[in-house]
Amino acid sequence: MIQLKLVTSRKLREVVEDGFPLLVPAGCVETHGPHLPLGTDTLIAEALCREVTERVPAVVVPAFEYGPTGYAVAGPEGGTVDPDYEGFYLYVKGVLRAFMRMGFRKIFGVVHHQGLDGPEASALRRAGAELIFEETVRERGEGWWGRERPEEGTFGRFRVMPTVLPGVECRGDHAGFLETSLMLYLHPDDVDMSALGPDAPWYTVGAWRASREEGERIFRKMVEAWVKFLRKEVQCGG
Questions:
Q1: What are the Cα distances from residue 169, in Å, to 48, 155, 218, 219?
Q2: Of the candidates 21, 16, 7, which has an alpha carbon nearest to the alpha carbon of residue 237?
Q3: Per-residue pLDDT reduced to its tens digit, 5-45
Q4: Which 3-state string (H, E, C) describes the chain?
Q5: 114: left (phi over 0), alpha (psi -120 to 50) or beta
Q6: Where do the domains of the chain lie?
Q7: Is there a contact between 77 and 86 (Cβ–Cβ < 8 Å)?
Q8: Is 106 left (phi over 0), alpha (psi -120 to 50) or beta?
Q9: 238 falls in which pLDDT band (50, 70, 90)?
């Protein structure tokens, strides 16, 4: 496993030159019922990225932890953080710009929060789309597209994708069966199943059926899907 924050600048040059893709986990700090930790989304995204980089040549970076939540589940009194959306987008754009200038040609935002239509994924997509053009102009000059056919992959340099890729048979939820099972497997000491009583929030319905075994089974499928995807990307991208 290669973590950006643990490599030297010399090692960084090596992985960039070797064409390693970059994985950027994204989550939030948000109420996840009475039984799961506030950082559940981030913890799942981070665990997936770490496991994937054990299987394929890739680099994982520190997560975007404070993603927008809209206070959809609870307010600050429940432990939820909801940053200014424009401020979050600008922060994301600045960080992604640095990754691109490091030389990474394939960067993937790995999101486990509110799906790909939520404000966090939208901020990542917006930042990435703008940067692809801005950085390409900086690298190649104005009129770069008009002078010669763009090299393959120019417009796919940054992509936002879910932790659960298509083909993995599991239904997303918030602190329900899926996330509770995953956390029982990944962070069992941080889950309090005894807190699930008859007054638990509606969205936790199904959590009582969760198990560590189911969490491991689903997580392995998530990892396999990402490994298969990245191996194809690396092979195609060189």
A1: 16, 30, 8, 11
A2: 21
A3: 999 999 999 999 999 999 999 999 999 999 999 999 999 99
A4: CEEHHHCCHHHHHHHHHCCCCEEEEECCCCCECCCECCCHHHHHHHHHHHHHHHHCCCEECCCECCCCCCCCCCCHHHCCCCCCHHHHHHHHHHHHHHHHHHCCCCEEEEECCCCCCCHHHHHHHHHHHHHHHHHHHHHHCCCHHHHCCCCCCHHHCEEEEECCCCCCCCCCCCCCHHHHHHHHHHCHHHCCHHHCCCCCCHHHCCHHHCCHHHHHHHHHHHHHHHHHHHHHHHHHHC
A5: left
A6: 2-166+221-237
A7: no
A8: beta
A9: very low
| Both tokens assigned to 42 | 């981030």
Q: What is the distance between the alpha carbons of residues 184 and 140, in angstroms, rounded to a whole number? A: 49
> Is 0.90 surpassed by the pTM of this model?
yes
168-178 pLDDT tens trace: 988 889 999 99
CATH code that applies to domain 2-166+221-237? 3.40.50.10310
